[in-house]
Amino acid sequence: MLRLVLCILWVVVGINDQLSSADAATDCNPIQLSPCATAILSTTAPSETCCGKIKEQRPCLCNYIKNPTLQKFINTPNARKVAATCGTPFPTC
Prior knowledge:
Distance between the termini: 38 Å
Radius of gyration: 15 Å
Strand content: under 5%
Largest sheet: none
Structural class: mainly alpha
Number of helices: 6
Shape: globular
């Protein structure tokens, strides 16, 4: 039982390290991109807040793209358009 608990903790810590290793100064949290949801899911122009969050989260985008749950929102033509409109080049992962 102890081995199972240690194994689960090891996996959780490993996932957390992958997300936070993108940039120690950046809080890699995809929820930070929520101000961009309307612009990504529609043709609405991104807000100033959205652009600021995309610039903050840019070091994390490759991790988000590699995440099967997030990639369907992050790795889309609209998301790329929003990033370009904000003047933030989309990363090559």
